[in-house]
Amino acid sequence: MLTTHNLTFSYSPTKHFQFPDIACANREALLILGQSGTGKTTLLHLLALLLTPTAGSVTINETDLTTLNAAQTAAFRAANMGIVYQKPHFVSSLSVMDNLLLANYLANKTEARDRARQLASQLGFADQLGKRPNQMSQGEQQRVSIARAVMNQPALILADEPTSSLDDENATRVIGLLRQQSEQIGASLVVVTHDQRLKDAFQNRVSLEK
Ligand SMILES: Nc1ncnc2c1ncn2[C@@H]1O[C@H](COP(=O)(O)OP(=O)(O)OP(=O)(O)O)[C@@H](O)[C@H]1O
Questions:
Q1: What pLDDT score was predicted for residue 1?
Q2: Ligand 1 center to 138 CA (angstroms)
Q3: Which element (helix H / strand E) includes 82?
Q4: What is the predicted ipTM?
Q5: Residues with a CB atom less than 6 Å from ligand 1
Q6: Could you tell me the distance, in angstroms and rounded to a whole number, from the CA of residue 90 to the centre of ligand 1?
Q7: What is the SS3 assignment for 34?
Q8: Looking at the chain, which terminus has fewer C-beta neighbours within 10 angstroms, N or C?
Q9: Total domain count for the chain?
Q10: Which CATH number goes with the domain that contains 178?
Q11: Mutate which of 7, 8, 15, 18 to test ligand 1's pocket (most atoms within 8 Å of Cβ)?
Q12: What's the DSSP call for residue 19?
């Protein structure tokens, strides 16, 4: 369902990336491994069309995202993708519950309070829905990020270094939660990371080289 073809991107004439073609079938999980600076975040942002490629295509469920205008891209992203960013992006003045409901609002969907409560209880932060995100630990915020990414039951979940700052136990837990959530909603899951601990959790892997 997700395929890329000849994706290239330039930050400047000297900072140019040519990425290997990627394919991730419906309901499959793919791990993209690379050391720091190999362009993992750049690639993830290209997959979400948060960056526009210099050349090449990103196709999701037969839609070539590079043919969409900015408004269409934003609508497609909100409806079809859940993104777990490297650093959590929350609205700090809103509660955890309202940050989750924001995902509904941005996708023009009805507020799904029951789903938010159910996810919070599955992911172990049901008692913290009234808090502000910055009153939670990093590991807890990571779990809220996962919940927010799956609020709208997207077809594709993209996760950027979801375990990099976590100890072994929490890294295993977070990757298990991502796998479990994507399986529950039938989503494809793409994780980009330098974290070699995740290798064994994924059969499908692509490596980025410097
Ligand atoms: N906005 C930008 N302008 C110019 N260069 C950038 C920009 N963002 C990233 N780069 C450069 O592109 C390269 C790849 O960055 P990117 O964040 O994609 O790597 P990464 O593999 O995710 O790294 P890390 O594991 O350290 O997060 C880096 O060398 C970085 O300096």
A1: 83
A2: 22
A3: strand 81-84
A4: 0.95
A5: 11, 15, 34, 36-42, 194
A6: 22
A7: coil
A8: C
A9: 1
A10: 3.40.50.300
A11: 15
A12: P
Q: Let me know if residue 96 belongs to a domain.
A: no
Q: Name the one residue in this structure whose structure tokens are 């899951």.
A: 189
pLDDT of residue 158: 97
- As a whole number of angstroms, the distance between CA 28 and CA 204 comes to 8
Relative to beta strand 81-84, strand 23-24 is: unpaired
**pLDDT by residue, tens only, the chain of 210 residues:** 899 999 999 999 999 999 999 999 999 999 999 999 999 999 999 999 999 999 999 999 999 999 999 999 999 998 899 999 988 889 999 999 999 999 999 989 999 999 999 999 988 999 999 999 999 998 899 899 999 999 999 999 999 999 887 888 888 888 998 999 899 999 999 999 999 999 989 999 999 987
Is there a domain that residue 63 lies in? yes
For ligand 1, pick from 12, 41, 45, 165 the residue to mutate: most ligand atoms within 8 Å of CB: 41
Q: What residues make up the domain containing 38?
A: 2-90+154-207
In a domain, 184, yes or no: yes
**In sequence order, what are the beta bridge partners of 29?**
189
Residue-level pLDDT at 169: 86
For residues 42 and 30, what is the distance between their CA atoms, to the nearest angstrom? 17
Closest among 181, 76, 114, 174 to 197, alpha carbons compared: 174
Q: What are the structure tokens assigned to 145, written together? A: 């990020």
Inside any domain, residue 116? no
